[in-house]
Amino acid sequence: MKPTLLVLAAGMGSRYGGLKQMDGLGPHGETIIDYSIHDAVEAGFGKVVYIVREYFKDQMEAAVKEKYAGVKTVDGEPLEFVFVTQELDRIPARFTLNPERQKPWGTAHAVLMAKDVIHEPFAVINGDDFYGKESFRILGDWCRAHENTEGQYCIVGFQLDHTLSESGGVSRGICFYDARQRLTDIAEHLNIAREADGKVYGDNSVNGETHVVLDEKALCSMNMWGFTPDYFDKSAAIFEQFLEKNANELKKEFYIPYAVDVMIRGGEAGCDVLSTPSHWFGVTYKEDRPAVVAKFAELVARGVYPSPLY
Questions:
Q1: β partners of residue 174
Q2: Residue 154 DSSP label
Q3: Structural domain tally of the chain?
Q4: Which long-range contacts link 141-146 to residues 24+ away (Cβ below 8 Å)?
Q5: In which band, very low, low, confident or very high, does the pLDDT at 19 lie, cut at 50, 70 and 90?
Q6: Threshold 0.85, pTM exceeds
C-alpha cells in the first residue's frame, strides 16, 4: 500500500502578494511543493492530491503535468496526480451560504474536499511549508503501519526552536500529550521569538499570558498530519455541527486541530504525536523569500537534493 499526499494549496497568498504555491525558490525554479513531493516519493507515497481554488486550477494542473512527466514512485509506477477545488459554496445542501462571506472555510474544510478521491491512509501538508526528508519518512512509515485501522491519526511535531523565523515573531500551536505520546491538546502561542538573553518567549493566546518563557524543545504543529480514510466521515459530521453555529459567520474557520480535538474529546479517535529532527522553513511574506532561496541553495550544495530536482 502506498499512502497519498494531500497538499493544501488553496491559499490566496494575499500577504505574500501572489501565488506563492508556484513561486520558484530552488536553483532551477523549484517550488516548495516540488521539494515536498520529491521527499514524499522517496518515502513511498504513490499519489498526490492538490487542494486548489477554481480560478488557478487549470494553470497549476498544466504546470504540474509538464513538470512531473516521467516521475515514478519507488515501485517504478507513474506518480498519480489529482486536483480538487475548495470553494465557499461546497457546504452541505441544508445550509445557506452568507453571500457576504469571502474567507475560505479553513483547513479541515479543505481536507474534506478530497473525500471522494482518497481511500487509503494519507498525509496532509501545507503547500508553502518545507518539512524535510525525515518528516516524510516518519509519516510514510506511520501511514503504512495503519493501513487497516480506524480512528488512529497522527501529527508530526517539530521542535519549537527548529521553526523560528529570523525576521520576526511567529505563531505556533504547541502540542501537549500524555505518557503514551498521544495528543491531548494544541495550545496556540503568538509572537514567538528568541530574544537577546537567548531564551524563547511568546504569548499564550489561550490564557492571555504575554511574554512568557517557552520550552524551545517543545513539539509544535506545522500542520503535518496523518489520517486513515475514516477521518472524512467523522470530520464531515463535525463540520455540520460547526455550520449549525457558524454558517452565517463571515470569518469563522473550520481548522484541522479543532476537528481532531472534537474527535479526541468525544472518544472517536486518538492522535499520535510523532517527533522529527527536521528543521521547518517557509514563506509567509515577500521578505521571507531571500532566506528560503538561500536555504535551498545550501541544501543543493550539500548534496541533499539534485539540481535540477526533476
A1: 187, 220
A2: E
A3: 1
A4: 141/43, 142/226, 142/272, 142/274, 143/3, 143/226, 144/1, 144/3, 144/44, 146/121, 146/226, 146/228
A5: low
A6: yes
Cα of first residue to Cα of last residue in the chain, in angstroms, is 25
Residue 309 included in any domain: no
Asked, for residue 308, whether it belongs to a domain, the answer is no
Instruction: Give residue 284's pLDDT.
Output: 67
Residues in the chain: 310
Residue 310 lies in a domain: no
**Neighbour-count burial for 195-230, b at 16+ CB within 10 Å, e otherwise:** eeeeebbbbbeeeeeeeeebebebbbbbbbbbbbee
* Residue 166 resides in a domain: yes
What pLDDT band is residue 49 in, cutting at 50, 70 and 90? very high
**pLDDT, tens digit, for every residue of 60-76?**
888 888 889 889 999 99
Where residue 220 sits, what CATH number does that domain have?
3.90.550.10
Note whether 36 and 136 are within 8 A (CB): yes
CA distance 12 to 237: 27
- Name the H helices within 117-255: 133-145, 231-246
| The amino acid at 202 | G
What is the per-residue pLDDT for 262?
97
Yes or no: say if 34 and 127 are a contact pair by the CB < 8 Å rule. no
Rounded to whole angstroms, how far apart are CA atoms 204 and 301?
39
Domain that holds residue 169: 4-301
